[in-house]
Amino acid sequence: MKVVRTVDEVRAELAPRRSAGAIGLVPTMGALHDGHRSLLRAARQAVDAVVVSLFVNPLQFGPHEDFSAYPRGESADLATCEQERADVVFAPNAAEMAMESGVTTVTVAGLSEIVEGAARPSHFQGVCTVVAKLLNIVRPDTLFLGQKDAQQNAVIARLVADLSYGVSITVCPTVREPDGLALSSRNAYLSRSQRADAAALHRALLTGRERIEDGATVEEAERAMQEVLAAQRGVEPDYARAVDPHSFKAPQDEGPVLLVVAARVGEARLIDNLTAHPGRG
Question: Is 33 known to be catalytic?
Answer without folding.
Answer: no
